[in-house]
Amino acid sequence: MAKAAQAAQAYDDLAGWFEFLNDDCDYPGWSQYFMEGLSRLGAGKKGLELGCGSGAFCRALSRAGYTMTGADVSCAMLNEAERRAAEEGARVQFVLADAAALKTPEKYDFILSPNDCINYLPPRKLHAAFLHIAKCLVRGGIFWFDVSSEYKLRTKVANNMFCDDRDDVTYLEQNRLCPDRVETDVTLFVREGALFRRCDEKHTRYIHSEAALVSAMEGTGLQILSLEGHLGESKEGSDRLNVICKKAQTVSINR
User: Which of 59, 199, 200, 222 is at a distance of 20 to 30 A from 134, taking alpha carbons?
Assistant: First the structure.
């Protein structure tokens, strides 16, 4: 639970600004990519987003007729997700859950885990996490996740600094490469009247190679259908690796 607690603290201050600061990532186009893929794969309409953050994908799929549940380890993110869903009139259920040990009272037609959720899991927890996720799917259900690719984290993010300066908030990110991960120090300066309040967070994203993800999937009952880059582009040199899986029709999972 220590790692889960660390992840939760990582978004305590960033939660309210997350979508605002990511307004260039094209959530509508990204959501459409998922919906077209789910339709092509024949997935049902009942889905869970694991690591839902502030709920952008959940809201988009809900508007398109899917019955969505959003799960996250961060209470701050879930509060923001509930607020945004209420503002938009989106009917989404949000629950507190750890991606490393997911348990749900019902099974889902598909589970999505986009935008780096799996990067927050250390390598030693991947196999167990995939086992738990498989248990939460119906037979034939789809598990679709992406990670920031090894290429992106090692060559673009590591040992680099990023800044986003807006009228009401300034975002600073400093990244340090470690053998199997990138350690990130985030600083926010948030306007409060005539002054700015400083907030500091630490994030850890683990570098998962394609081979490591494929290996961790073995024996889970999940069959890899496709490996592709961001929004379906070639995975070579892409910032993201999408792993699209299907739960076997007959599977025995020991927990």
Answer: 59
